[in-house]
Inverse folding.
């Protein structure tokens, strides 16, 4: 491009912008056909951090139930449909935290489950509560008993405070590792 005459200086700048990879990648990010202005480029993620488990959040089953193993081997993870918890605002589903009961869709079925591990954003973490790198649940049957007979992952000791709940105490009895 240095060999081009000076009268085509504008043309050479246009070609430099067309073949510049940083401008091309910025164009596709904003959905415009022209480059996104520098002051509009975000240096952080585009989605807001999640406060907890909400609708359509993917989860991992950590008990040894047949339904959980089947979902794990097929790669179709269960996801949250509803949170059984009173929210602050009417018609707004609250976020589930450790020890909350949720309704999940797994392998074409709807099952209730307890949250035994949650991956929360760094701004919403609480002191003394360990954070896991995945959202973990234990599946329940229609009577509220756990489907599996063993929990394969360590669960936080903060959940021991929920021993008063009869259904949750059955889940705690299956765990042998606490963090």
């Amino acid at each position: 491009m240095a060999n081009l005459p000076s009268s085509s200086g504008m043309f050479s700048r246009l070609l430099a912008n067309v073949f510049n990879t940083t401008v091309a990648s910025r164009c596709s990010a904003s959905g415009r056909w022209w480059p996104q202005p520098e002051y509009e480029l975000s240096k952080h993620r585009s989605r807001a951090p999640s406060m907890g488990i909400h609708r359509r959040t993917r989860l991992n089953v950590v008990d040894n139930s047949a339904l959980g193993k089947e979902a794990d081997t097929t790669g179709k993870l269960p996801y949250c449909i509803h949170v059984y918890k009173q929210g602050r605002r009417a018609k707004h589903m609250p976020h589930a935290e450790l020890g909350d009961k949720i309704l999940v869709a797994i392998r074409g079925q709807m099952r209730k489950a307890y949250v035994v591990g949650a991956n929360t954003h760094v701004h919403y973490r609480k002191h003394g509560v360990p954070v896991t790198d995945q959202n973990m649940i234990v599946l329940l049957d229609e009577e509220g008993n756990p489907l599996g007979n063993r929990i394969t992952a360590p669960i936080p000791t903060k959940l021991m405070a929920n021993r008063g709940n009869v259904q949750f105490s059955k889940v705690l009895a299956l765990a042998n590792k606490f963090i």
